[in-house]
Amino acid sequence: MTDGSSTVPLLDVARGNSPLREAFMEALEKVVDSGRFLFGPDVAQLEQEVASFSQVDSAVGCASGSDALLLAMMALNIGPGDEVIVPSFTFFASVSCITRVGATPVFVDICPDTFNVDPAAIESAITPATKAIIPVHLFGQCAQIDQICNIAAQHNIPVVEDAAQSIGAAYHSRPAGSWGQVGCFSFYPTKNLGGMGDGGMLSTTDPAMADRLRLFAGHGMRPRYYHKVVGINSRLDSFQAAVLRVKFERLPEAIRARQENAARYTHLLGEAVGDGELGLPQVDPDAFHVWNQYSLRVREGRRDDLRAFLSGRGVGTEIYYPIPVHRQECYQDQAFAQVDLPETDAACSEILNLPMFPELTEAEQRTVVEQIRQFYVQGARSAA
Ligand SMILES: *Cc1c(COP(=O)(O)O)cnc(C)c1O
């Protein structure tokens, strides 16, 4: 039954990378020969390419998506006594950037249909101490960023978009990372533009902000050995930039493949199981979804059973995220963690992420869906 040929990996980065091997080697050899391992021409070129793709004036490379978020907090002068509004249903780095600078996260709940932060909850959480809002564009779909930016503008609060999972996504045709004061991207290997190691980028349309972000990313040093502010050392290196430029060229094609795969899952799952016990992912009609993840809601407390069943049949899945950030051990003695976020808790107990990458085949998707169908057929039989 668990015939090896029918196994489906959660993610297989080698499938995307191996056809590009020669292009990578050529690009990397150029870096080796140039000796410019930091601040090489590929870094500046990738910054230009990402800026133009994301319709912003400047992009600033840094060492990771996590550093991008931290640098945004530092450049906005956020510190002790300041509040930053953020969802708890996200990757830890959306929040640790706030506590790292000594500020207080104010957690808000999500919309159950998209898993993205609820704009109305943001509005109610604003106080005179609010110094920024960090909406997260989760799984490849933008949050309702137009509403969020309107609310923020009424209160004169900067918005920092966590677009780590959503390069190339858009809302009302305007790209992720171009709405707020600052946008943060990640090139972690599982992201839609994934490198061969860590990397990140910041986007902004404010030239003074671009300058501050670069200042903080370079130890606050200007000129050399004179430090204006206490920054960090966070750079995108030339090797990563060279790899990323090869992949960047194919990003629109990779996004299209993800969209086709998502549409196929939705069609096949709708036929096989329906949208009752299993909640299929919902697309906001105003969003251009780039499907970093295909996320199901598994109801009736059966998520972990389904996951174990699929794992036994060779189908890889993941849970993004099993615990909300406000329930993480490191924050348990903090007053800001004592909040009630029912939609966030429900999402953590129901969510299941299926294999999703551009090179995933139709046959593999049919295998995944067939195994899910069998789980429900067996469940119905044992209940009868
Ligand atoms: C991946 C991710 C980050 C952090 O990016 P790294 O490059 O891994 O540091 C931040 N926020 C979200 C939502 C992410 O998915």
UniProtKB/TrEMBL annotation:
Specify the superkingdom.
Bacteria
PANTHER family linked to this entry: 3-OXO-GLUCOSE-6-PHOSPHATE:GLUTAMATE AMINOTRANSFERASE, TRANSAMINASE
Q: Where is the active site?
A: K191
Lineage runs: Bacteria, Pseudomonadati, Planctomycetota, Planctomycetia, Pirellulales
- Family affiliation: Belongs to the DegT/DnrJ/EryC1 family.
Q: Does the keyword Transferase apply?
A: yes
GO terms of molecular function = pyridoxal phosphate binding; transaminase activity
In this chain, where does the modification N6-(pyridoxal phosphate)lysine occur?
K191
Identification of the protein by name: Aminotransferase
Q: Does the keyword Transferase apply?
A: yes
What is one process in the GO biological process aspect for this record? polysaccharide biosynthetic process
* Enzyme Commission numbers on file: 2.6.1.98
| Annotated organism of origin | Roseimaritima ulvae
Cite the entry's keywords alphabetically.
Aminotransferase, Pyridoxal phosphate, Transferase
Transmembrane region positions?
none
